[in-house]
Design goal:
homodimer, about 250 residues, alpha/beta, Ribosomal Protein L25, Chain P, Alpha/beta knot, 2 domains, six-stranded parallel sheet, five-stranded mixed sheet, 8 helices, about 35% helix, about 25% strand, elongated, S-adenosyl-L-methionine (chains A, B)
């Protein structure tokens, strides 16, 4: 069943009015009619089956028939901070990362970021990134819609870390020297409900200076196995390992 | 350092002659000269640093200066069997799957495979798929060059399972009913050196009939977490979880 994220909390309402893009998608793309059912996801993560009761020229009214019980979200909140990469790699990280359960995406301007962030294109870019997250969230049956932020400076990235219980950096250089236990150790120390900041470098990785500064601010430097992962692959590795650790291992 | 896979075993040779594409890459693309160093990977998985000693019009001669000690390969052999997907998704699975440590890729014609396999395009396709694997293997510092096979029939897929110690199917339907422990259980029972066959459906997943038939032949049906993963994302999830299980968890 098609799911739609509505930008309001679940306040015991039985009827929900849908307008804008989702209205367009329901009526024009899916060509749904009265009696057809959709899934509604409220912005506090509740999921309901709702039956369409009225279709006007601008809105669809649906009434909730039942609420989804089981959680489909990771027990930890994962914030993916990617050193701004080239081309469409970030779009790809957002799409796959959303499928794999990330809750936030925060690009940052890294020392080795080659692309320049153009403020005049910022609004369009952010719109596009968040649209990609929304579509992937719907397709992968997420209960929370991940948000994508405008790129942070390195300083702001370190400040963001202060709001997180666990701060981890994927750092190729420690991997080269065989570091393979820090990531699993960090996950073992992570409690359900914790906010975890995962930092990944752009192409070419983090600089030594960046890694040292992050380490000095309590970020754990980790290797993600003996093979060299591309900048767009490493976040997916980490998210899959986190799902395996918290959702599949018993 | 750039690495090159040479299609011969390590037979104590000190000197290695490189021709063909790799010759072209070393001399024309990288513009290397006498004294420059490259990494040589023999087809039995040994890695050597070699110094270029002679460059002719058709070949490069290099002599081994040292052999790489540590293994960069997963302790288990992972065969990724993907129901033939649409578009370039398989190319993508091959590139990322190679980075993540897969040792073989075996597409198969699944009940829900939409694309038709055209025999007359087979040679070109296979060449391209294996080229993608070779480039990803070089870039991710693999010590073994993964092979990509021509698509199997479903019957041949079941036969392939007979050569593997462990046979696993990612099956969305069991995931929907909350199955979350079979995958980790299967990995716990897997020994270093085992050959593991991982089967993934195309878009739309495996049919119930296919899943039942695989189950009847000793394949374990697994969910890969509560979120719905795309056909190209599921193999990467499994490979990352396997690396985490065997390489990072201590």
């Amino acid at each position: 069943m098609q799911r739609y994220f509505i930008n309001e909390p679940f306040v015991n309402q039985k009827r929900i009015e849908i307008t804008g893009d989702d209205y367009h998608h329901i009526v024009r793309v899916m060509r749904m009619k009265m009696g057809d059912e959709i899934l509604i996801v409220t912005n506090d993560g509740k999921v309901a089956t709702a039956s369409i009761e009225q279709v006007t020229d601008v809105s669809v009214e649906a009434s909730v028939t039942s609420w989804e019980e089981e959680s489909k979200e990771l027990p930890v909140q994962i914030v993916i901070a990617s050193g701004l990469p080239k081309g469409d790699k970030l779009e790809w990280i957002i799409q796959k990362g959303t499928e794999l359960g990330a809750s936030e995406f925060v690009p940052f301007i890294a020392g080795r970021s080659i692309v320049k962030w153009e403020e005049k294109k910022a609004v369009k870019k952010l719109e596009r990134w968040n649209k990609i997250a929304k579509e992937a969230a719907e397709q992968s049956h997420r209960q929370i819609l991940p948000s994508v932020h405008a790129p942070l400076s390195f300083k702001e990235l370190i400040q963001l870390g202060e709001q997180c219980e666990r701060k981890i950096v994927a750092y190729e250089e420690v991997a080269k020297y065989g570091e393979q236990s820090n990531f699993a150790e960090a996950l073992n120390k992570t409690e359900p409900g914790n906010k975890v900041l995962l930092v990944f470098g752009p192409e070419g990785g983090m600089t030594e200076k960046e890694a040292n500064e992050l380490h000095a601010h309590g970020f754990i430097l980790c290797g993600l196995g003996p093979r060299i992962l591309r900048t767009e692959t490493a976040p997916l590795y980490a998210l899959a390992a986190i799902s395996y650790h918290f959702e599949l291992m018993r």
